[in-house]
Design brief:
A: alpha/beta; Rossmann fold; 2 domains; 6-stranded mixed β-sheet; 4-stranded parallel β-sheet
Chain lengths: 398, 255
């Protein structure tokens, strides 16, 4: 999975440029160190690789199609391809990572899984693989999110997971993450923490990025088949924590002829005070064990972000993305709630695909940025919109 | 020699008390410190509140949330502590997460601590290797002891590394847990205390997490030089206010 030593990849010490590292209390050190020492070795074991690939193929349904969006391409005068992560089992890219991590946990001899979830997508993907492997699963979810996302709570319960409310702080994703970390401190020997994004202490950002890198690996050969080149001109993906973007960029990171576009949630507008555009509003600090960009007060208190899309509603961004932003390797574009919702509806009407609102943010870039007719653009369609129907209904008065 | 090390040379079992700055009321900081010294505490840990205290249990989380609601900031805390050395002589440690310290500026933070007369820092999420590489010189030039944690899971090799890096005491976390009061320690913890004490480290050991009463104090100090009481103290002031802590401290030390 990990080839060549590349400059935009993690270095030996766990940093992307100046971002990353493992800023964790001593109580977590043995767990994180165990993972750090073993993850790469385990991922390269032939039986690990083959089990991972078999499950991605037969259980998740990979490869996901790379679909040429004809009508969108005509309208926006470019060659637009959609990477259909929405067609994966459980409806998003999240399962690529949870399959990888559950196999990792088994090889580390862990018998108990914890996870955090915001909207519930990662929680469902974790509960799914725990059911598959018959391992105990506890998902932390903010008390407020539990109320907002009842169907996903029910899904997790049906899959046999216990959903524990996070009642501290702002009672949303960042607090669910805090609670999961506290659980890990209290259960250091038997538990593996399946983090859902390219965030957290090293080696999580790199490990999750590698599990998600199946996306860019497939894009390469699928594009070769359809266009006779394995390089798009642009890869566009939305960024909350950044796992689907990390997966879509991975094999292109060090090929600067491929332009990377990271789409953040502007919410009601970057300056509205109701936004999740971390690169625009954040500065360097520590969140959940990683040195990265995050939204915070002048005094270093982490602030609560806002986006209509629960999956982009995170006050930080993974350290890989912080580095891509700082080095200008990726272009960061902020898309408002309204722009995203309209782009989502356009995709429904023009291509017959109802996208997750997270992914809709990526599509809104088509209206914002001019492309050339020969440009090959891959948009990572990270998830499907079933979970967001209520939000779409309310927004458009359907 | 700074005040912590002087205190550690006294021939007694020490009690260090943690409180969250800005709790219960924004202006309680100085009164709590003065009353703790009068009531017989040996060391005071001033908690700099943080929005996301990963290593803390519910009691300290709630006090931090309240302190931030009350308006506590790093700058305000430093202003409150400006003349603290005119009235107290007790060793003072600031305990806080790294992000607020980074935002203040680590160098500016250390200088301010020195100006005020702070003796040490406990920053649970600043890794020891990053400290060694980037901040050790800065801390030492400002006469600040950086205090590291060990846990039952910390390897022998790492304990020796931490011991070598320590300039005052080692904060020995009693069990695999976040902060919070416990009623008694089990055999596993006693074995751990004994194991560490038999390593004959250079640094004195002070046990924290789960110390709430005379029983846990006695169990811990059989092997260690003292204890740190945090959550139990926060619970105490929540019920009884901040005027007098004598009874609270005596109950832990002597029953």
């Amino acid at each position: 999975m990990k080839d060549l030593k590349m400059s935009y990849h993690v270095n030996k010490k766990g940093y992307y440029g100046e971002f990353g590292g493992a800023y964790i209390p001593e109580m977590l050190y043995p767990n994180v160190e165990e993972l750090r020492l073993n993850y790469q070795k385990i991922m390269e074991e032939p039986d690990f690789k083959s089990e991972f690939q078999q499950l991605l193929k037969n259980y998740v349904g990979r490869p996901s199609p790379l679909y040429f969006a004809k009508r969108l391409s005509e309208k926006y005068q470019a060659k637009i391809y959609l990477k259909r992560e929405d067609l994966n089992h459980t409806g998003a890219h999240k399962i690529n990572n949870t399959i990888g991590q559950i196999l990792m946990a088994k090889r580390l001899g862990k018998t108990r899984i914890i996870a955090e979830t915001g909207a519930g997508q990662h929680g469902v993907a974790t509960a799914t693989v725990c059911a598959l492997m018959d391992i105990q699963c506890i998902v932390y979810m903010g008390e407020i999110d539990i109320k907002r996302q009842a169907p996903n709570v029910a899904r997790m319960k049906m899959l046999g997971a216990e959903v524990r409310p996070a009642t501290s702080g702002s009672k949303t994703l960042k607090d669910a993450t805090n609670e999961a970390i506290r659980d890990w401190i209290n259960n250091p020997s038997d538990t593996h923490y399946i983090i859902g994004s390219v965030v957290g202490p090293h080696p999580y950002p790199d490990m999750v990025a590698q599990f998600q890198s199946v996306i860019s690996e497939e894009i390469q050969w699928q594009l070769q088949e359809q266009e006779g080149t394995n390089k798009p001109n642009y890869v566009i993906a939305c960024v909350g924590g950044g796992s689907n973007a990390a997966g879509a960029y991975y094999h292109f990171l060090d090929d600067e002829s491929v332009n990377l576009i990271a789409v953040e949630a502007a919410g009601l507008g970057i300056k509205s005070g109701k936004s999740a555009a971390t690169s625009a509003l954040g500065n360097e600090g520590i969140i959940h064990g990683s040195k990265t960009l995050l939204m915070q007060t002048k005094d270093g208190q982490i602030t609560e972000p806002y986006s209509i899309s629960a999956g982009l509603d995170y006050p930080g961004v993974g350290p890989m993305h912080a580095h891509l932003f700082q080095t200008k390797r990726a272009e960061f574009i902020a898309i408002s709630d309204d722009e995203a919702m309209n782009a989502g509806l356009e995709l429904c009407k023009m291509e017959g695909i109802i996208p997750a609102i997270e992914s809709s943010h990526a599509f809104a870039v088509l209206k914002k940025k001019p492309f050339k007719p020969d440009d090959i653009i891959v948009i990572n369609l990270s998830g499907r919109g079933d979970k967001d129907l209520e939000t779409y209904i309310n927004h458009f008065n359907l | 020699m700074n005040r912590i090390n002087q205190k550690l040379q006294e021939n007694k079992k020490l009690i260090s008390i943690y409180f969250t700055a800005g709790y219960p009321e924004i202006d309680d900081t100085v009164t709590i410190i003065q009353n703790l010294e009068k009531s017989g505490a040996d060391i005071i840990e001033i908690g700099l509140p943080f929005s996301d205290p990963l290593a803390d249990g519910p009691t300290i989380q709630a006090s931090s949330t309240q302190a931030l609601k009350n308006g506590m900031t790093t700058e305000l805390l430093f202003r409150q502590l400006e003349s603290i050395r005119k009235t107290v002589n007790i060793p003072l440690i600031i305990m806080g997460y790294f992000n607020p310290i980074m935002q203040y500026g680590v160098e500016a933070f250390c200088k301010k601590c020195r100006e005020i007369g702070i003796d040490g820092l406990i920053i649970p999420d600043l890794p020891i290797d990053v400290y060694e590489e980037q901040y050790q010189t800065l801390f030492e030039s400002n006469n600040l002891s950086n205090i590291f944690l060990i846990t039952p899971q910390t390897s022998t090799e790492r304990i020796h590394y931490i011991d070598a890096m320590s300039t005052s005491f080692i904060y020995m976390v009693s069990s695999a847990s976040t902060t919070g009061a416990q009623s008694g320690f089990g055999n596993e913890q006693k074995y751990y205390f004994k194991r560490i004490s038999e390593m004959k480290l250079n640094s004195p050991l002070i046990v924290g997490f789960g110390i709430s009463n005379h029983e846990t104090f006695t169990q811990a100090t059989e092997y260690a030089n003292g204890v740190i009481v945090g959550s139990a103290f926060i619970n105490h002031i929540k019920k009884n206010g901040i005027d007098n802590f004598k009874k609270f401290i005596v109950n832990i030390l002597n029953k």
